[in-house]
Amino acid sequence: MLLNFLSLFQTVLRISYEISWYDGVFAIVESILVTSFFIRPLHC
Q1: Residue 22: how many CA atoms within 13 Å on its side-chain side?
Q2: pLDDT digits over 1-44, tens only?
Q3: What is the pTM of this model?
Q4: Which of 12, 18, 42, 44 has the most CB within a 10 Å radius?
Q5: At what angle do helices 2-18 and 21-43 cross, to 10 degrees?
Q6: What is the CA radius of gyration of the chain?
């Protein structure tokens, strides 16, 4: 799980370098929200 998150984070960082800084931050926030939505049902 942690390795998947790290690889996802590296991908987001790579995308943020290719596109603008604002879009990169938005992609990071969106990925964190999506990850939290996937993790939340597992804890319930």
Answers
A1: 0
A2: 677 888 888 888 887 677 677 777 888 899 899 888 887 766 65
A3: 0.40
A4: 12
A5: 160
A6: 12
